[in-house]
């Protein structure tokens, strides 16, 4: 292992730029190389990391023996292909969410990493931010009593050019895999695997879900109501309620910028729960964790495990089946 963890980025789009910027906050990490389908989009990284190698194809990146780990930042419809490319070249991988288009792909990706004995983790960054940890601490400590309800919404109206990826079925377009995944992940984190799932969607012009409404029901009477939309700008907040109180994560609930409010009992008066402030965008937490795993020689994160990823993908498969959301990859 190099003195600093040498990161490669595969796909030089919007999230790749934010991740690269946050890598500067990780003491023992460096952006070593960036690969793009075409040279033009890597140039923006030259300003951020002048020393980084720039490749105009992905294969050259995975073939460089000096790269320790690759962050896959392409659209979700390509995560299977790009993870397989990295893993087959013996590279550790941090793959953006949604990890894959369906659970079948996810299982194959994990099996390939296990065969090659390389590290593989889904970049579910929210699981590493201080506000998520504080929310879990509060909901797990009995402070809310028995949790009976999780109510989450996430919505915005996409503008070009991002709209292309967000509505394209081959790339895994639709709200569920892009933004609804956060709603599902938070509900699973607090309430666990649901006993019953109901879901409906409104199709966009391409057939993917422009809006998706999900209901999780649990045999103990708990429910989660999850709503995602590309037709409206929603509050993008989360409420978690129990018999003794409610926790509210304000606008954008899944980021380090959220404020956590605690409403005890019937009271309207809230307490604002202090959360450690964050530098950067918040992607450095997951990047630092990956570095720690690599230094320990792990092939799986103990925080965002392969089982966590599979539960998320299997839950989203069931939601898609109930709502009638299909991708070309489902037909294989
Ligand atoms: N964790 C988060 O907060 C967060 C936020 C936004 C997005 N994401 C995830 O990150 C992934 C990328 O999202 P993004 O918003 O960064 O997308 P984006 O801006 O469209 O960038 C994706 C990049 O993938 C590469 N690519 C390769 N084949 C492509 C194809 N056929 N069509 C389009 N792009 C292709 C392109 O880079 P090159 O031309 O350089 O090869 C493109 O710039 C998605 O899976 C998304 O869910 C995560």
What keywords describe this structure?
eight-stranded mixed sheet; Dihydrodipicolinate Reductase, domain 2; 332 residues; 10 helices; single chain; binds NADP nicotinamide-adenine-dinucleotide phosphate; Rossmann fold; six-stranded parallel sheet
Task: Give the arrangement of secondary structure elements.
Layout: E1 5-10, H1 14-23, E2 29-35, H2 43-48, E3 53-55, H3 58-63, E4 69-72, H4 79-88, E5 92-96, H5 103-116, E6 120-123, H6 130-140, E7 147-155, H7 162-167, H8 175-191, E8 196-203, E9 209-217, E10 223-229, E11 238-242, E12 245-249, E13 260-264, E14 271-273, H9 284-295, H10 306-323
Parallel strand pairs: 1-2, 1-4, 2-3, 4-5, 5-6, 7-10
Antiparallel strand pairs: 7-11, 8-9, 9-10, 11-12, 12-13, 13-14
Residues 11-16, 36-38, 41, 73-76, 78, 96-97, 123, 125, 162, 165, 171, 178 line the site of NADP nicotinamide-adenine-dinucleotide phosphate (NAP).
What report would you give on this structure?
- It is built from 10 helices and 14 strands.
- By secondary structure, it is of the alpha/beta class.
- Helix 4 (79-88) runs parallel beside helix 5.
- The radius of gyration is 20 Å and the shape is globular.
- Strand 11 (238-242) and strand 12 (245-249) form a beta hairpin.
- The strands form 2 sheets. An 8-stranded mixed beta sheet has the order 8-9-10-7-11-12-13-14, with helices on one face. The chain has a 6-stranded parallel beta sheet with strand order 3-2-1-4-5-6, with helices on both faces.
- Bound molecules: NADP nicotinamide-adenine-dinucleotide phosphate.
- NADP nicotinamide-adenine-dinucleotide phosphate binds at residues 11-16, 36-38, 41, 73-76, 78, 96-97, 123, 125, 162, 165, 171, 178.
């Amino acid at each position: 292992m190099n003195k600093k963890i040498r990161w490669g980025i595969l796909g030089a789009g919007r999230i790749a730029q934010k991740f690269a910027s946050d890598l500067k906050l990780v003491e023992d990490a460096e952006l070593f190389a960036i690969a793009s389908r075409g040279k033009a989009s890597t140039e923006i990284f030259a300003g951020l990391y002048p020393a980084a190698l720039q490749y105009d194809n992905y294969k050259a990146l995975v073939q460089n023996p000096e790269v320790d780990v690759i962050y896959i930042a392409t659209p979700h419809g390509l995560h299977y292909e790009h993870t397989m490319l990295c893993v087959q070249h013996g590279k550790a991988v941090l793959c953006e969410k949604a990890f894959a288009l369906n659970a079948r792909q996810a299982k194959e990706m994990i099996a390939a990493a296990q065969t090659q004995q390389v590290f593989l983790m889904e970049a579910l960054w929210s699981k590493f931010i201080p506000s998520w940890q504080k929310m879990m601490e509060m909901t797990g400590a009995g402070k809310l009593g028995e949790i009976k309800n999780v109510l989450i919404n996430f919505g915005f109206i996409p503008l070009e050019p991002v709209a292309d990826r967000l509505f394209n079925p081959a790339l895994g377009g639709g709200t569920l895999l892009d933004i609804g995944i956060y709603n599902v992940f938070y509900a699973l984190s607090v309430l666990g695997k649901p006993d019953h799932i109901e879901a409906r969607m409104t199709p966009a012009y391409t057939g993917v879900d422009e809006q998706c409404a999900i209901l999780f029901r649990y045999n103990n009477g708990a429910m989660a109501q999850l709503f995602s939309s590309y037709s409206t700008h929603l509050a993008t907040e989360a409420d978690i309620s129990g018999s003794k109180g409610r926790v509210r994560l304000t606008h954008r609930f899944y980021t380090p910028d959220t404020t956590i409010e605690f409403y005890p009992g019937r009271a309207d008066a809230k307490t604002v729960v202090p959360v450690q402030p964050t530098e950067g965008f918040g992607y450095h937490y997951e990047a630092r964790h990956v570095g720690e795993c690599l230094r320990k020689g792990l092939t799986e994160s103990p925080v965002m495990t392969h089982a966590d990823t599979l539960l998320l993908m299997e839950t989203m498969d069931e939601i898609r089946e109930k709502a009638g959301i299909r991708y070309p990859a489902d037909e294989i």
